[in-house]
Amino acid sequence: MSRRVLGPLTLYVLAIGAIFGGLGAWVAAEQDGLRRAVLAFFLPDDWISAGDHLLRGFIRDHRPAMINLLVSALVVVVPALTFPLKEWVSARFEQHLHRDDPDWSTPPEHPLWRQALDEGLLLLIFAALSLAALRVTVTPGWGRVGFWLTNGVLAFSLAVDFVGPTLSRHRVSPTAIYWVLFRHHPLRALGFGAVMAAPPLLAGKLLASGEGGAAAFMALAGVNTACIAISALWGTAIGTDIAGRQHPGPSRRFAIPFWLLVTSGLAVNGAFFGAAFKAALDVSPILKCTWTPVDDGFELDLPGLLDPTLTVELTVEVHNPTARRARIGENRVELRHRGQALADTALPPFDVAPGETVRQHLELSFEPRGALYDRAGEALADGMENGWWQAAKTAAGGVADKKAWTVILTLPLPSGELVVPLYDGSKPPKPKP
């Protein structure tokens, strides 16, 4: 190989290696701290260990697809950041391949802004494909399908990323690159991508196993760098061969639906994952709020013969320790007596400003269920015969015993439900300041 190729290739390898090495060393040193910092942002301190366990479980359950997507981002996005060097290597190697062809002339390169635009469009398509594959992966029952989709996205994206520069120099648009590879050379493109993706995937699986520490990250960086360097040369050779065949480009009947599909995929899946992230942001202040019943702030107005409604008056202090406003929206409040759910209702929406403590007086009216009718009826009958306070202590349900009651607030979350005990009669209340 001539020095005209080795010089750009060496610079390209050094640039890619520096990015991977720096990123790998940083993640290796900070991965535990980063994970716990993210969890601490969303969860109270007491929940971080449980949240870390759940996060590890989610990653473990979806590990194959997650590794594929991570490797895809590394071997597609990182080379895109160094696109001028990749283009330089590809152009010089294409000249080297045609060194013995006197009739071949070097195709004019696009200006730098056009190269950046083409790389950006290819990354946009890659993002749309990756989000669609991730959406399938996290859909219950579709994990296996998502795994194979992520494999396909990785393989085909690698082919587009490294065959593309040569085709682009021959005036093939980003849309036409996908058309030519998918329509005329699908097996060749997928074969190239599968071969070049295999070493990074194997290294990624070793890294995900948790073995090797910083050395595993550096090994992954080395494997990725070597594969990218080889892909730049091999992809140029494939692109040169394809460009010489003069495949017709796609018509507008392909281009327009293609970009409509890309943009709609980005919009729909971006909105889906964006909404999930926003929901997590909105919920995290609520997760960190502390709810404390105040003094004797729990009063019962038991059902009577004429009015069967049970009224509970409860005073709680809600403290928001975060820098964001905690908003209590959709919810369910459940009244329990000795662990048995007797009635339910909902709180009116309210919010707590950052850093503030709000004393909330709640007056809740419950339509009793059958079990509560039975217990209240027994207490009332015994009270009429033996006196109310004596009956309250001895009644079959202990209806008037405040220590037997609990009030539970349930908030819906994207991943399930958050249960907050507003009042637990078995625990001592917070004293007055």
Descriptive report:
- The protein has 433 residues and is of the alpha+beta class.
- 62% of the residues lie in helices and 16% in strands.
- It is built from 12 helices and 9 strands.
- It has helices at residues 3-42, 48-61, 63-81, 83-97, 112-138, 143-169, 174-184, 186-208, 213-243, 252-288, 370-386, 388-394; strands spanning 290-301, 310-319, 326-328, 332-337, 340-345, 350-352, 357-366, 405-413, 416-424.
- A 4-stranded antiparallel β-sheet has the order 5-4-8-9. A 3-stranded antiparallel β-sheet has the order 1-2-7, with no helix packed on it.
- Strand 1 and strand 2 form a beta hairpin.
- Helix 8 (186-208) runs antiparallel to helix 9 (213-243).
List keywords for this structure.
433 residues, alpha+beta, Immunoglobulin-like, 2 domains, 4-stranded antiparallel sheet, 3-stranded antiparallel sheet, 12 helices, 62% helix
Write a brief caption for the model.
It contains 12 helices and 9 strands. The chain has 433 residues and is of the alpha+beta class.
Secondary structure topology:
Elements: H1 3-42, H2 48-61, H3 63-81, H4 83-97, H5 112-138, H6 143-169, H7 174-184, H8 186-208, H9 213-243, H10 252-288, E1 290-301, E2 310-319, E3 326-328, E4 332-337, E5 340-345, E6 350-352, E7 357-366, H11 370-386, H12 388-394, E8 405-413, E9 416-424
Antiparallel strand pairs: 1-2, 2-7, 3-6, 4-5, 4-8, 8-9
Helix pairs in contact: 1-4, 1-9, 3-5, 3-6, 3-8, 4-6, 4-9, 5-6, 5-10, 6-7, 6-8, 6-9, 7-8, 8-9, 11-12
